[in-house]
Structure to design on (279 residues):
């Protein structure tokens, strides 16, 4: 695509290319995600995010992983889209509604500047029904379910935040070989739409360490929906209380699963790195 304007942004190191679909004409977004995400021959990113007009919300987000697959939801991108539409004067609101394939998300812009802004997103209710996640396990909710991978038993807890997550509580995550291990979870036949997988160490009742293997992207420095899913799984397994700080490779996210309305709230930074034009 010639003369395509883009902005590179990240949330806790989870980096995407953002394109204003209100002014730019995108033809094959899936193919574009693959080529632009390439870290040698493209811009380099975990995927592509389109900001589009919406009939029901202020804006609509469409998100593609670096392998070209379209995801229902992306937590880190949601924060960045909020910052993008405000900085680019597409809105003057600091409370923004965003249509996604996983329903409406409510963004609140907090303190910040043109480079970095703190953003909270009401991510809605977690989905625990295995049919809806989807995962081919009848136990409901799926907590500490034994999954055998190459002769080793892992205990998975499954949560959807609009997209599927398998959360594993374990130890020694910094030594895990995720490029070998991650795909064995991602493509396991019990996940009919594949899965994102979070490897979690419990630090204390309000703190977790996390590494993530993302469906369609591989290991990323952070995953917002994954952090929400990990928090929900930690609370359901009684490892943690309802407010949790999650340390990811690229930064921290604060997650609250509120008892009063069952919604998950994610707070973290959204950062603009640079703008450019594809020649
Ligand atoms: N990094 C994202 C999630 C992106 C989509 C995911 N790989 C999927 O295919 O479901 C986040 O911050 O939530």
């Amino acid at each position: 695509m010639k003369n395509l304007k883009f902005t590179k942004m990240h949330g806790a190191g989870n980096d995407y290319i953002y394109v204003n679909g209100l002014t730019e004409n995108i033809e094959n977004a899936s193919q574009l995600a693959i080529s632009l995400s390439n870290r040698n021959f493209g811009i380099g990113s975990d995927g592509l995010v389109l900001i589009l007009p919406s009939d029901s919300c202020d804006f609509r987000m469409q998100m593609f992983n670096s392998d070209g697959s379209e995801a229902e939801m992306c937590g880190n991108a949601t924060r960045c889209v909020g910052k993008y539409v405000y900085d680019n004067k597409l809105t003057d609101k600091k409370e923004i509604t965003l249509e996604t394939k996983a329903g409406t998300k409510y963004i609140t812009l907090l303190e910040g500047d043109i480079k970095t802004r703190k953003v909270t997103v009401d991510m809605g209710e977690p989905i625990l029904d295995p049919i809806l996640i989807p995962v081919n396990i009848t136990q409901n909710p799926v907590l500490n379910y034994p999954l055998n991978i190459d002769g080793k038993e892992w205990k998975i807890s499954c949560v959807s935040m609009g997209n599927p997550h398998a959360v594993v509580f374990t130890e020694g995550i910094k030594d895990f070989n995720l490029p070998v291990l991650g795909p064995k979870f991602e493509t396991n036949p019990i996940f009919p739409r594949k899965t994102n997988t979070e490897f979690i160490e419990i630090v204390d009742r309000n703190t977790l360490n996390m590494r993530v293997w993302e469906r369609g992207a591989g290991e990323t420095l952070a995953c917002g929906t994954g952090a929400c899913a990990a928090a929900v799984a930690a609370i359901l397994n009684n490892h943690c209380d309802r407010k949790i700080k999650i340390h990811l490779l690229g930064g921290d996210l604060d997650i609250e699963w509120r008892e009063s309305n069952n919604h998950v709230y994610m707070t973290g930074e959204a950062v603009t790195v640079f703008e450019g034009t594809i020649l």
User: Anything to note?
Assistant: The first helix runs from residue 29 to 37.
